[in-house]
Every structure is written in C-alpha cells, then in structure tokens.
Amino acid sequence: MEILLRQDFEGLGSAGDTVKVKDGYARNYLIPKGIGYMANEANKRKYENDIKQQTWRLARDKKKAEELAKTLVNISCTITVNVGEEDKMFGSVTAQNIADTLAAQGFTVDKRKILLEEPIKSLGIYSVPLKLHNEVDATVKVWVVKE
C-alpha cells in the first residue's frame, strides 16, 4: 500500500513523500496515528491544502507577533510587592505576575513566552526577554517597587 506522509517519520521518509509499506502497518499504525494518508489524488490535494493553510497560519502568527513586539518596546510594567525590613521582598515576581500585569494593560502574552531564568527576588528595574514567535523576540521593562 502506498502512503502519503503528513510528517517526517524516521525510517520511512519526510513529510510529503509517498512510500510503500505493508497493508497492516498502514491500516493499523500510520493512518490511525495521523502520520500518513492513503496515496490517492484526493488525499494529495488535501495534503497540499493543509500545507497552504499551515504556511498562511504561520505567516499570520508571525505578523501578529511582530506587531506586538513593536508595541511592547515602549511598554514598562510596574509590579508592587510587599517588603519587610531593609526592603527585603516577601515572595518573588514570576512570569505569571508579569503576564498578569501585561494583561491588565491590554497585552495578551502567554507566561511560557516570558523567559525568566529565575524569579525576581529584589527591587529594581529589569529587562525581561520575551519569545513571541520562533523568529520574533522582544524585551519588556519590569519595575519591581515596594507597596
């Protein structure tokens, strides 16, 4: 049976290749797992349409990320924290806190895209890098001030 691969699969080939495999392997593993389609004209057109939609979606997401990065350059978020004696912070500022502060300002950024190596544990001004898309990076100034 000939199969059109939807994704790269080690030992068989790369996405878009038509490979010949045993019938049972195709029916019981490759097709149910979504790794490939039966190689016929309708499925080839379907695969080409999927590729067009995927490239369009990636371009749209990249454009949105670039626009967001341009606006975030001028944004700074201020996070107020409780402090004790000698300005010692209670707790720390995490990526979730930064994401919530940005959301309050009207910018939706997923906390997983905020690249904090470790939580912020002292008062000050920090430049926090963001990975908005595979090809788009940005930085946000975070002001950690006492309440």
Write the layout of secondary structure elements.
Blueprint lengths: L1 E4 L12 E3 L2 H8 L5 E3 L2 H32 L3 E6 L13 H10 L19 E10 L2 E11 L1
Parallel strand pairs: 4-6
Antiparallel strand pairs: 1-2, 1-3, 5-6
Kindly describe this structure.
With 147 residues, the protein is of the alpha+beta class. The protein contains three helices and six strands; from the N terminus they run E-E-H-E-H-E-H-E-E. It has two domains: 2-62, Ribosomal Protein L9, domain 1; 69-146, Roll (Ribosomal Protein L9, domain 2), CATH 3.10.430. It has a three-stranded antiparallel sheet with strand order 2-1-3, with helices on one face. Strand 5 (124-133) and strand 6 (136-146) form a beta hairpin. The longest helix has 32 residues, at 41-72.
Terminal-residue CA separation? 69 Å
Give the overall silhouette: elongated
Low-confidence stretches: none
For the record, what CATH class of the largest domain applies?
Alpha Beta
Instruction: Count all strands and give the number.
Output: 6
Q: Please, how many helices? A: 3
Please state roughly what percent of the residues sit in beta strands, choosing from under 5%, 5-15%, 15-25%, 25-35%, 35-45% or over 45%.
25-35%
Total number of domains: 2
What percentage of residues falls in helices of 4 or more residues? Answer: 25-40%
Give, in order, the helices and strands. EEHEHEHEE
CATH superfamily of the largest domain: Ribosomal protein L9, C-terminal domain
Structural class comes to alpha+beta
Mean pLDDT: 93
Q: What is the radius of gyration? A: 24 Å
For the biggest sheet, the summary is: 3 strands, antiparallel
